[in-house]
Amino acid sequence: MTDEQIVELFDKVVRDINPQVDGIIRRAELLGRRRRVRRRAAIAAGNAAAIAVVAGVSLVVGTHHASLGPARPVAGAATGHRSARPTLRASRSPSPSPSPSPSPGALTGGGMTPAHMLVTLRGLLPAGSVLSDVFPGTARGDLEVDYNDGKGAVDLMIEVFPPGTISQATCPDPLWTDEGPRPAGALPVSCAMRTLPGGGVERDAVMYNDSYGFYGYDIYDTRPDGVTVFIQVANGTLHGLPNVVRATPPGSMAQWEAVVESPAWHV
Fold first, then answer.
1. What is the pTM of this model?
2. pLDDT range class, residue 76, cuts 50, 70, 90
3. Who has the most CB within 10 Å: 147, 179, 192, 264?
4. Taking a C-beta distance cutoff of 8 angstroms, is the pair 160, 112 a contact?
5. Which residue in 65, 101, 72 sits closest to 220, CA to CA?
6. CA neighbor of 210 nearest in space, from 180, 239, 233, 238
């Protein structure tokens, strides 16, 4: 072979093995987001061993803050859902337009598909509500969208957990502390436990904010049969870094309690 042919051969080899950097970055961001949520859950639970394991993994995937997230998983339980301290979850990759839900064959776990959850959520929201930028998750019982009540879009997440996959959410004592200045006019940090008429237990919280002023409502409804429905409604969006668009999340605690307690959510 001539020198030119050898050079051309090596160029071809390099082109063939060139990694899809954009895809790798998006995947790393997604993994970092979920692992950071688990790390914060471990912090809330005081589980030092879990903190060490998950925090070590999180260091390789970026530095974005996270948003509110679900309670820690029960030890030994297998689940594809995120599990976390109900606090800031790492930001998601930007999406210029509403994204289609994954195909049923691509989803993990059992229960409602994101598409089914989206239809259910629309039926529980006030008239005129707009849902967009559906986050393309890969787990059943897991939905994240931008919700706009006409006053600016915010991040909204709902998760439905089968019995035995997460522990009972409780209020910490003392309550969480803010990581940065709270937005002017923001709701104060709060947490309350309620026993529902049917025997379920609910934790209703207004979360602490991160260093960007990002916080939200955070509600867990654990039913008598062990199914837990979680909702987070923030005061801003997550496209890259948190973007605060209002002092308080849309709606009221009572409105989102009604959404979480709807029997339309199931496994």
1. 0.67
2. very low
3. 147
4. yes
5. 72
6. 180
Nearest residue to 30 (alpha-carbon basis) of 113, 135, 110, 117 = 135
Longest Cα–Cα distance of the chain, Å, equals 84
Residues 6+ apart with CB under 8 A from 163: 225, 226, 227, 267
Copy the structure tokens of residue 38.
Answer: 């688990």
Q: What is the DSSP string of 156-210?
A: EEEEEE-TTSBPPP---SSPP--SSPPPTTPPPPEEEEEE-TTS-EEEEEEPPP-
Which residue shows structure tokens 């940090």?
Answer: 189
Q: Which two tokens stand for residue 135?
A: 């986050």
Asked whether 142 and 159 are in contact (CB, 8 A), the reply is: yes
> Does residue 49 surpass a pLDDT of 60?
no
Q: Position 72: which residue type?
A: R
* 253 membership: H or E segment, kind and range: helix 253-260
pLDDT in tens, 173-217: 999 999 999 999 999 999 999 999 999 999 999 999 999 999 999
- Average pLDDT over the chain reads 75
Q: Is-contact 242 67, C-beta < 8 A?
A: yes
CB within 8 Å of 105: residues ≥ 6 apart: none
Q: Give the pLDDT confidence of 130-140 residue by residue, as tens digits.
A: 999 998 777 89
